[in-house]
Amino acid sequence: MIETTLQLENCPLQAYDCAWLHELASLRQQNQALELLVTTDTLTQLYNYRYFRDLLSREMDSTQRTGRTTCIIMIDLDHFKSVNDERGHEAGNQALILAANVFRQAVRSSDVVCRYGGEEFVVVLPQTTLHIAINVAERMRDYLQQSTVQYDDESFQLTASFGVGTYSGETPVTLESFVDSADQYLYQAKQQGRNRVCHVDLSTLKQETTVSAEEKSALFNNSDD
Q1: Is residue 214 flagged as an active site residue?
Q2: Which of 9, 35, 119, 120 does the annotation list as catalytic?
Q3: Which one of 19, 93, 118, 160 has the lowest number of neighbouring Cβ atoms within 10 Å?
Q4: Quick check: pTM over 0.85?
Q5: How far apart are CA 162 and CA 167, in angstroms?
C-alpha cells in the first residue's frame, strides 16, 4: 500500500490537526488498497486477468500510434494436474507461488507478469520485438526448470510451455485474437513435448535492419534484470 504524505502547509492556517485532510488521506489509502485488491492475484501477488486485459489494450493502442511492436508470452505449467493429484492442492499452491517468483526474476523491468488463471500465466512486453520476446521466454523457461519446489519435506521440479505472440499494428487485430494467436503457439509447444518455446517462423517476418542497444543487452546478457 502506498502511504499518503500530508503537507502541513496545505492545512487551513497551517493547522497541525486538520480533520478533513486526515479524512482525505484515509480515503486515498482505502482507494489504493481497493485498487490493489481488484488488480492483484491474492495467491501469487502477480497482477490478475483484469489488469492484464486493461494493460494489453493500452499497449495495443500504443503500438497502433507508434508502430513499436507489443509482444505477449502465454505460459502453462506442465503436468500441473498431477502435482495437485499426487501431492495435494497446497503443494500446487506452493508451485504456483514459486513459478510466479521465478518469472518475476527472469523478465526485464519493463515486462509485466500476470496470472492468467489456474496454472496459466501471461507476460506483456511493451515496445518489444519478437526476437527479444523469444529470448525472455527462453530465459523464463530455463530459470523455472532449474528451480525446486520445497513442500512438506519433499522437493520437486517444474517445467512450463511457452507461446509467444507479436502485434505490429499493421492490420486491425482484436485483443482476443492477439491472445489466441499466442495461445496457439502455447498449444504447439505442449504438442511438441512441453518445456519449450514456440512462436511464428521468424523467416516469415520482415527483416529487422537495426537492433537497439537495449535489445542487444536483452539478447546477450541474461544476467541483467
Answers
A1: no
A2: 119
A3: 19
A4: no
A5: 17
90-99, 161-170, 190-199, 209-218, range with the lowest pLDDT: 209-218
DSSP 25-89: HHHHHHHHHHHHHHHB-TTT-SB-HHHHHHHHHHHHHHHHHH---EEEEEEEETTHHHHHHHH-H
H-helix or E-strand containing 151? Answer: strand 148-151
Q: What is the CATH number of the domain that holds 56?
A: 3.30.70.270
- Give residue 25's pLDDT: 56
pLDDT tens digits for range 52-83: 999 999 999 999 999 999 999 999 999 999 99
30: alpha, beta or left, given left = phi > 0 and alpha = psi -120 to 50? alpha
Q: Which domain holds residue 216?
A: 42-220
